[in-house]
Amino acid sequence: MILVARLLPTCQEMSKLLSDALDRRLPWHIRTRMFVHLRMCVLCEQYRRQLALLRRLLRLKNDSHSAGVQVSQAGLSDEAKERIRRALDSAPSSRNSF
Amino acid sequence: MDEVVGPDSRRWIDEHGDYLYRFALVRVYDSNVAEDLVQDTFLAALQGTRRESGPTAERRWMVGIIKHKIVDHFRRMAREPLHDDSRSDVPARDDDFLADGHWKPGVRESRGWPDNPDALLEQRQFWSVLACCLDKLPPRAAQVFTLREIDEMDTEEICRLLHLTQTNFGVMLHRARKQLRNCLSTRYFGRTEEAVQS
Question: Which residues of chain A have a CB within 8 Å of the CB of B177?
């Protein structure tokens, strides 16, 4: 049993591998060792489910809301708004050329 | 042609300016560039015509434009040498684990997450907590996470556009995901466990 455990990734390694698996296909021998670890370790299995939930949530949110997820609370400064306003006022437009 | 440009575009700044700025900022990670992208978006919108009507369609139309502007920006950046500061986002040690590689107590107790995303999807509070948690990530990690998980871009494309090696990319996303999970566990699921489970 100890020998088997030595061949398997640690939880710390698993957390990185579970993330990697969301971005690329891992080699089969790594996937096999991850599979065995997940069968024996509730904490890593819990982590795997949480990452999967996060991904599914963001995908669903993207599908249901036209503009997707709002991820920051910053805003344009007044100076920037004024600058943009001036740029727009002086811009040629296809709509006001009668 | 009864549509006048001035008032229309002024309304855009108030209605969509902050939103588009936030949208760009988290992706390009530079406030000056983000401001310029918002301006370019409105300028492009002035030249274009929108097919659908209504405020939601207008927002969607503008987001579509700024997405293209952001990719153009990355393409321009990809031609210039870039100072790679991604390493500074990566601490040498991982505080969530014990020396033997096991989860630390405390990080372990990450309960209260539902299996089904549907219940969470409409919880406004969840999304505002998620926004706070994303704000706390190192800017580069937030940028890579946003491009990957929110814009659903390919790993290869992100690495190419941002000059990242696949190793750096993997490390940043791993840190971002774990930090987000921990943040959501403490700030949302830990507190509102009974409210979420229905």
Answer: 19, 22, 51, 54
